[in-house]
Structures are given as C-alpha cells and as structure tokens.
Amino acid sequence: MLDFGSGLGTAIWAANEIWGESLYEYQSVDVSHEMGELARVLRTDGESQDSDINVPELIPGVYFKQFLPVSNRVQYDIVTSAYSLSELPTLSILRQTLASLWRKTKKYLILIEVGSQAGFNVISEARDFILQAK
C-alpha cells in the first residue's frame, strides 16, 4: 500500500484494521518529517525513539518517505490520497502528482477529499485526468 500525504497514517490504520496481515508493506509519504515521526510514535503506542530499546510497532512494515518515489517500477495494489490533493499549489502539480500516483497503482487508486465544492472539484479534475490518461 502507498499512502500519499499520509499525515498520521489514518489510511494505514484503516487498511490494517480491514485487511490485517494480507498487507505486508505500507509506504507512508508525507512532506513533513515531523508528521512522519509523530505517526511512528503513535504506531509504537507512544514510545519515543530516544531510547536504545527497539520498540515494536503496532503495525509492522510501515516505511516513511518525505517524497513520492521517482521510479514507477514498483506498483502497489492500493494507492491512497486522503485530503492531500487539494493542498497542492497548482493544477500542473496536481496533474503531475495524479500521473505519478496512477503509474504506481496496480489495482485500486483511492482519492478522498473534503465534502465541499472545492473537494468535489479536485476529485472531478482527478477523475477526468485519469480517464484521459487511460
């Protein structure tokens, strides 16, 4: 699973709850290193990485990245982006990001945005762009 703009990893927690051990690797992508660290603390039940003890994570197999991997050789059965596309600054960057997410998708691309006119517009643009890319 690849989770773009993962924040605290809500999509990862939900996927783990539903599919459990059938998902064995999660790529968490968020530009904020601090958010990735906070998500890791949550996955270790509040334990900090400051100690010398290797604390097991509640969800094994989560790997944090600050940026989307450039290579498209690796694809994921599930690619998610929740409440992140609307934060991208330009239509061009939105389209580049959508193209990258689509190329990394093997089975399911799940896009979620706020239930507002702005959120609808982002999802509509994403849908149209991906259908044209096929």
Give structural attributes:
134 residues, alpha/beta, 5-stranded parallel sheet, globular
Describe it.
With 134 residues, this protein is an alpha/beta fold. 38% of the residues lie in helices and 19% in strands. The chain is built from 4 helices and 5 strands; from the N terminus they run βαβαββαβα. Strand 4, helix 3 (91-103) and strand 5 form a beta-alpha-beta unit. Helix 3 crosses helix 4 (117-133). The longest helix is centred in the last third of the chain and has 17 residues, at 117-133. The model has no long low-confidence stretch (mean pLDDT 91).
Q: What share of residues is helical? A: 25-40%
Beta-sheet strand percentage?
Answer: 15-25%
Number-wise, the strands total: 5
Query: Structural class of the secondary elements?
Result: alpha/beta
Shape: globular
Q: What is the chain-wise order of helices and strands?
A: EHEHEEHEH
Based on CA atoms alone, the radius of gyration comes out at: 15 Å
Number of H- or I-type helical stretches: 4
Largest sheet: number of strands, sense, barrel closure: 5 strands, parallel
Mean pLDDT across every amino acid position: 91
Low-pLDDT parts are: none
Concise synopsis of the structure shown:
This protein has helices spanning 10-19, 33-43, 91-103, 117-133, and strands at 2-4, 26-29, 62-65, 76-82, 105-112. The chain has 134 residues and is α/β, with parallel strands linked by helices.
